[in-house]
Amino acid sequence: EKAGFEHFMLKEIFEQPEVMQDVMRGRVRLDEGRIQLGGIADQLEQLREAKRIVICACGTSWHAGLIGEYLIEEFARIPVEVDYASEFRYRSPIVGPGDVMIVISQSGETADTLAALRLAKEKGAMVVGICNVVGSTIARETDCGMYTHAGPEIGVASTKAFTAQVIVLTMLALALSKDRTMTDGEVMDALRCLNELPERVKRILDYNGEIQSIAEEYKNARNFLYLGRGYNFPVALEGALKLKEISYIHAEGYPAAEMKHGPIALIDEEMPVVVIAPKDDTYQKVLSNIQEVKARGGRVIAIATEGDEEIRELADHVMYVPEGKAFIMPLLTVIPLQLLSYYIATLRGCDVDRPRNLAKSVTVE
Ligand code: F6R
């Protein structure tokens, strides 16, 4: 059932191109230049009128939510807040009629996420679910929603469910924007990017041998720092979480520009820094961040756009991803980070499918 892979996690990482097709099937309508989301069709108009959207989730699903914030604000121009489900429910959250809450959960059973959705519903907000497990409690209790169709995720560390969640959020943002905040041409461009995504992800997976040798070199590190900007900031958080969960190496993710406000003090040759640095509007800024790390004796693993030779001069190692628009990058840059964590963990002899102290679904509060 692992289809020839050594672990479920590796199988699930490599499955992502097909999963991405499944998530988009029937929903990304290139011929009609639009997105069709059956699960929210009846509520779409009401969603487009939302005063504000609150996204609640935990863990990796919360990282997907952060990317959702960037997507919905950029495309649909609706204000979005992202909250840890546990924090939302224990303050006095301001939420009510006219607000929309989106809850994101792979398992659909996470206790804190479920409680946040019940609270929002009670206060009169419309609640939309993004779940993977069909018929799960969260999927049943939401007013409407979209399944991620990623198939069963067995590895405890979430990989394909995360990319599927981000694709659903991208499609949702586009559905909210059409005929409102985006022109038909802009929507069409975005649909084309989504359509090309599975092929691009396949290309990244082909680099897995190189990623494995980078893992070999860094497997004994005790701390890691992950940096990214904009759409890639949540990816830095997700890369760090993946490493912690399965390799038990301490790792932190930061917005690249925040490094100088504290974490820079930690940098030395003992702490590798993973910098997500695709060619986008902030590329030059990220290069300066790399220089700052190098000037302090740090070692840098960069994630860069194919063809970027300049970065080779600066970084110690480079993991390449194909070029793409800013909004699509998280779906590309997260792939080498999943593989890096996987290889580091297996080289350290860790049980990646069943990491210690973790459960696939967290039903305690
Ligand atoms: C990370 C991971 C956890 C879950 C979190 C939420 O790899 O698996 O952080 O993402 O427990 O779970 P769901 O999405 O099922 O609500």
From TrEMBL:
The active site is at K360. Its EC number is 2.6.1.16. It catalyses: D-fructose 6-phosphate + L-glutamine = D-glucosamine 6-phosphate + L-glutamate. GO terms for cellular component: cytosol. Signal peptide: none annotated. GO terms for biological process: amino sugar biosynthetic process; carbohydrate metabolic process; fructose 6-phosphate metabolic process; protein N-linked glycosylation; UDP-N-acetylglucosamine metabolic process. It is an enzyme of class 2 (transferase). Keywords: Aminotransferase, Cytoplasm, Glutamine amidotransferase, Repeat, Transferase. GO terms for molecular function: carbohydrate derivative binding; glutamine-fructose-6-phosphate transaminase (isomerizing) activity. Residues 40-182, 214-355 form the SIS domain. Homodimer. Catalyzes the first step in hexosamine metabolism, converting fructose-6P into glucosamine-6P using glutamine as a nitrogen source. This is Glutamine--fructose-6-phosphate aminotransferase [isomerizing]. It comes from Prosthecochloris aestuarii (strain DSM 271 / SK 413). The gene is glmS. The chain holds residues 264 to 628 of 628 of the full protein.
